[in-house]
Amino acid sequence: MKIAILGTGMVGVTIGTKLVELGHEVRMGSRTATNEKAAAWVKTAGAKASAGTFEAAAAFGEVVFNCTSGSGAVEALVMAGEKNLEGKVLIDVSNPLDFSKGMPPTLFVSNTDSLAEVIQRRFPKAQVVKALNTMSCSVMVNPRLLPDTHTTFLSGNDASAKATVKALLSQFGWKREEVLDLGELSTARGTESLLPLWLRVWGATQNGTFNFKLVAAKPG
């Protein structure tokens, strides 16, 4: 599959590298075609890795991962081009974190809206799925780093789009029972709201290699 990665940070590099290892063709997008981080990644990732602008990456990809910072997500997607996102699964990994007042950050969208919904409204012909935004990138692509089962969440309005994301998660190593489909995209309000807690757990434990697990009583 041809996959676009928007963003050259740690999340984009980690997801892009894993996808290449799995045999996908991956193009990393950034503001310029000569981005140094993207070029460095291409040199190390292998023959199926390439780089270009946000627009070039989005045009290339059959599936698009938004791995930009939350504050820059909409701008990056505008640069990618609305036509290049039409009909495509857009996996939104970003979070609406506001670092303007330092640490810990606050959420610039919350409660009655989510960044995923903002993106869906701005790009109505894309199939936005919120996924993998509640953990470190190392766990995103290698859930077996942790010694126990744990939970990842999906939010989205299109069942076929979520099926595509579930298939990719399976390739990453997620077990079927570890993937919890929360329902429509508005449920991303909940998963995005986990980030302040996630950051505080990280700060308290000084260990970012963890995840949340849903433990429920048996029916009856």
Present the secondary structure layout.
Blueprint: E1 2-6, H1 10-21, E2 25-30, H2 36-45, E3 49-53, H3 54-60, E4 63-66, H4 73-80, H5 82-85, E5 89-92, E6 97-98, E7 106-107, H6 115-122, E8 127-131, H7 137-141, E9 152-156, H8 159-172, E10 179-183, H9 188-205
Parallel strand pairs: 1-2, 1-4, 2-3, 4-5, 5-8, 9-10
Antiparallel strand pairs: 6-7, 8-9
Helix pairs in contact: 3-4
Q: What proportion strand?
A: 15-25%
**Tell me, what is the CATH class?**
Alpha Beta
- Model regions low in confidence, pLDDT < 50 over at least 5 residues: none
Q: Considering DSSP H and I runs of 4 or more, what fraction of the residues is helical?
A: 25-40%
Annotated CATH architecture? 3-Layer(aba) Sandwich
N- and C-termini, Cα separation: 44 Å
How many independent structural domains?
Answer: 1
Secondary-structure class: alpha/beta
The third-level CATH topology is Rossmann fold
- Strand tally is 10
**CATH H-tier superfamily:** NAD(P)-binding Rossmann-like Domain
Average pLDDT, to the nearest integer?
97
The topology string of helices and strands comes to EHEHEHEHHEEEHEHEHEH
How many H/I helical runs?
9
Strands of the biggest beta sheet: in what spatial order? 3-2-1-4-5-8-9-10
- What's the gyration radius in Å? 17 Å
Shape: globular
Biggest sheet statistics: 8 strands, mixed
